[in-house]
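In response to the reviewer comment on reproducibility (Comment 2.3), we provide here a single inverse folding case reported in full, input and output, so that an independent group could reproduce the run without further information from us. The C-alpha cells appear first.
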C-alpha cells in the first residue's frame, strides 16, 4: 500500500491507496493555518495513524504550488508558508518512509490518466476549474513538468489583453473568464446592476448579491434557472476558446475537465465543445480532441500523489 496526502488551504486529507487506485481508508484534519512546521506535524500524525493499521511503503504529497523536478522541494505554495522548502527531507526524517512531493494538478492528471477518464490515451491535458484554472499535461506515460517544473499553468495564458486583473499580476488571464470565480463575478455584476435577469440569482441568496458564488450559479443552472444557465454557457465559450489555443500548441487527444466547476457537466461542456470547434486551428481538416469530464472527483489528487510515490 501507498499513502496519498492532499494538502489544501483548509484541510489535509490522507488516504491509503492500492495498486488499482482504490482508496481503502481516508482521514482528514484541518489545515493549521499557514505555519509550515505545523502542517508537517499534521501530515506526520496522519501517516502514523494510518500506518498503524496498514503497511505503507511510500508517501506522496500533493499540494498547490510549484515543485522542483526532483519531487523534493516546494519552490512556492500560494496557500501555505512553504518557500523553497525541503519538504521531502523534512518529512522523511519524521516518517521514516520514502516521500514524493508533487503539484496537486499533476497528481490529479496522473490519477485520471491511470485510473479515470484518461485510460487508453497516451497524450492528454487535465484542467481543474475552481477558484482559478489548474492544469497538467501527461505525455507517453509521464507527467510533463517542463524545464523548470512550472509546466501546466494554463490558466495564465493571456486570452483577453487588457482584460480583468488576475491575482498573478497580469490582465486578461484565461482563469479570469473560465473559472468558478469568474462565474460568480458575472452573477454578482448582474445583481449589482439591478438587472431583471438576476432575479433568480438574488432570490437564491436572500437578496445578498455578495453571496452569489460560482457554486451557487452552478447549482441554479442544474436546477434549470435560465440566467444561471446562460452564465454557465458563457464560461463554456471561454473554456472552449482556451482549449483551442492549447490544442494548437500541444495537440493532445483528450482534454479532461475537473474541479468544482465541472459539476455543471454538459451545461458547460457542450458550449465549450462548440467554441473549441469554432476556434480550432485547421478546423475541418484535422481530428478533434475529445473533451470530457473527470471521473475521480475530489480524490484524484490524493490517488495520483500516492501512485506517483510508488514510481
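Designed residues, in position order:
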Amino acid at each position: 500500500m501507498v499513502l496519498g496526502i492532499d494538502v489544501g488551504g483548509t484541510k489535509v486529507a490522507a488516504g491509503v491507496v492500492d495498486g488499482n487506485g482504490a482508496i481503502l481508508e481516508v482521514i482528514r484534519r484541518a489545515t493549521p493555518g499557514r505555519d509550515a512546521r505545523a502542517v508537517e506535524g499534521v501530515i506526520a500524525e496522519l501517516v502514523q495513524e494510518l500506518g498503524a493499521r496498514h503497511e505503507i511503503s511510500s508517501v506522496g504529497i500533493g499540494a498547490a504550488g510549484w515543485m522542483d523536478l526532483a519531487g523534493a522541494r516546494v519552490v512556492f505554495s500560494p496557500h501555505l508558508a512553504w518557500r523553497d522548502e525541503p519538504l521531502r527531507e523534512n518529512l522523511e526524517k519524521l516518517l521514516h518512509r520514502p516521500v514524493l512531493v508533487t503539484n496537486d494538478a499533476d497528481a490529479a492528471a496522473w490519477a485520471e490518466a491511470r485510473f479515470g477518464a484518461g485510460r487508453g490515451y497516451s497524450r492528454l491535458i487535465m484542467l481543474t476549474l475552481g477558484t482559478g484554472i489548474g492544469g497538467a499535461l501527461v505525455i507517453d506515460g509521464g507527467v510533463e513538468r517542463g524545464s523548470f517544473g512550472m509546466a501546466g499553468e494554463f490558466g495564465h495564458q493571456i486570452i483577453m489583453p487588457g482584460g480583468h486583473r488576475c491575482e498573478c499580476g497580469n490582465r486578461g488571464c484565461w482563469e479570469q473568464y473560465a473559472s468558478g470565480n469568474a462565474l460568480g463575478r458575472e452573477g454578482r455584476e448582474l445583481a449589482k446592476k439591478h438587472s431583471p435577469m438576476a432575479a433568480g440569482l438574488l432570490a437564491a441568496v436572500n437578496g445578498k448579491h455578495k453571496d452569489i458564488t460560482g457554486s451557487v450559479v452552478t447549482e441554479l443552472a442544474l436546477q434549470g434557472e435560465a440566467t444561471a444557465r446562460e452564465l454557465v454557457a458563457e464560461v463554456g465559450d471561454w473554456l472552449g476558446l482556451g482549449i483551442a489555443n492549447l490544442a494548437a500548441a500541444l495537440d493532445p487527444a483528450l482534454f479532461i475537465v475537473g474541479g468544482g466547476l465541472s459539476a455543471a457537466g454538459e451545461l458547460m461542456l457542450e458550449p465549450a465543445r462548440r467554441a473549441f470547434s469554432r476556434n480550432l486551428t485547421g478546423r475541418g481538416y484535422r481530428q478533434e480532441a475529445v473533451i470530457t469530464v473527470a471521473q475521480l472527483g475530489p480524490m484524484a489528487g490524493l490517488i495520483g500523489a500516492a501512485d506517483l510515490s510508488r514510481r
